[in-house]
Amino acid sequence: MERIHVAVRARPLSAEDTKSTPWRISGNSILIPNYSNKFEFDRVFGEACKTEEVYRSKTKEIVTAAVRGFNGTVFAYGQTNSGKTHTMRGTANEPGVIPLAVHDLFHIIQQDVDREFLLRMSYMEIYNEDINDLLAPEHRKLQIHESTERGIYVAGLREEIVASPQQVLDLMQFGESHRHIGETNMNLYSSRSHTIFRMIIESRDRTGDDDSSNSCDAVRVSVLNLVDLAGSERAAKTGAEGVRLKEGSHINKSLMTLGTVIKKLSEGAESQGGHVPYRDSKLTRILQPALGGNANTAIICNITLAQVHADETKSSLQFASRALRVTNCAHVNEILTDAALLKRQKKEIEELREKLQGSQSEHLGKGDSQSSKHIITV
Ligand SMILES: Nc1ncnc2c1ncn2[C@@H]1O[C@H](COP(=O)(O)OP(=O)(O)OP(=O)(O)O)[C@@H](O)[C@H]1O
Ligand SMILES: [Mg+2]
């Protein structure tokens, strides 16, 4: 069992906002002096920090574990204009968590000479509660299904096989051009949809190619989700009307469901057999395995320390504090191909035979007339 890792990142402020900020950061805690609540997290990053530092603090470890077969999910949460897209996607000068993770992933894989890898990527957005495929823009309104074999999955989502970081980043760029972005009073390039960038990592022991070896064809499959959420917002501040207002209400609704899911999980609802409303939004349904199950999960909570947004920042920090109490249980996802299963069974049978033969000759040697009852036919 492992806790969800929660980091907070404060975005840079204007000189004026810096003068009037009520917040103080001290180590890994953040507080308003004389205000009763003091929030403590795994990490708190101040305005001067660079994305690379945020990446190294936990996501790097999640990426490394994903190569070893553990599912991983990292998402950026926070109010509009707080720096989520800056953190996850970044700019040419300051690459975000996604490009940093992609480069690292390929680097780690190249070092691993004992296994062979197959990487696939997908990129989707949830816009007004519809799932759209950003790699195949004609695939819209995709449905979520669940099966014992695949777990929860988005039917018809394109998965591209990728062989280099550049290929992934080019595909991402293509996807970005189809993402819903709009101008609001608060953010010129406000994300109007949640995006889930996903790498699926399959690997197999190379020594399995050699028939005489003892190794088996077990295939590890893990999923790495890097999520850039749309930001919670108040219509009064964003000046949202018409389409923007409708988008805003969908965004707020799915973030509210995410908040409720995290609250329930932090109260231990799932382990006590209680109801967790994953199905109330597409976002929580898709992220269900990452939130209450088999994944290493980290949240980067983006905030602004400006006085005017103190209420929104408090509510983001409350969400993040609850997330600290959620635990997950990640395990290596190993599946066996039929051939591999047969190979493994054959090996076990041979070992059993050898053991039996050994024990038979031992008993016969001692003249034990009861030995026949130990013989098992396989
Ligand atoms: N740490 C940072 N350093 C430099 N610029 C930043 C930083 N964080 C945010 N910004 C800038 O602030 C603006 C808003 O950031 P961004 O678009 O990432 O916010 P967001 O949280 O994704 O908002 P929304 O929810 O509306 O999509 C951008 O111009 C971005 O470049
Ligand atoms: Mg954004």
Would you kindly provide a written description of the structure presented here, covering whatever features stand out?
ATP binds at residues 78-85. Residues 3-326 form the Kinesin motor domain. GO terms for molecular function: ATP binding; kinetochore binding; microtubule binding; microtubule motor activity. Belongs to the TRAFAC class myosin-kinesin ATPase superfamily. Kinesin family. KIN-7 subfamily. Residues 357-378 have a biased composition (Polar residues). The protein folds into two domains: 2-336, 3-Layer(aba) Sandwich (Kinesin); 339-374. It has eleven helices and 19 strands. The two termini are 39 Å apart. Strands 2, 6, 7, 8, 9, 12, 15, 16, 17 and 19 form a ten-stranded mixed β-sheet that branches. It has a three-stranded antiparallel β-sheet with strand order 3-4-5, with helices on one face. It has a two-stranded antiparallel ribbon with strand order 1-18. With 378 residues, the chain is α+β, with helices and mostly antiparallel strands. It is globular, with a radius of gyration of 25 Å. Strand 13 and strand 14 (190-191) form a beta hairpin. It has helices at 15-20, 51-67, 84-88, 97-111, 165-176, 235-238, 242-266, 282-286, 288-292, 310-323, 338-365, and strands spanning 2-3, 5-10, 24-26, 29-31, 38-40, 43-45, 72-78, 115-127, 130-133, 144-147, 151-154, 160-162, 181-182, 190-191, 194-205, 218-228, 296-303, 327-328, 334-336. Magnesium ion binds at residues 84-85, 191, 228.
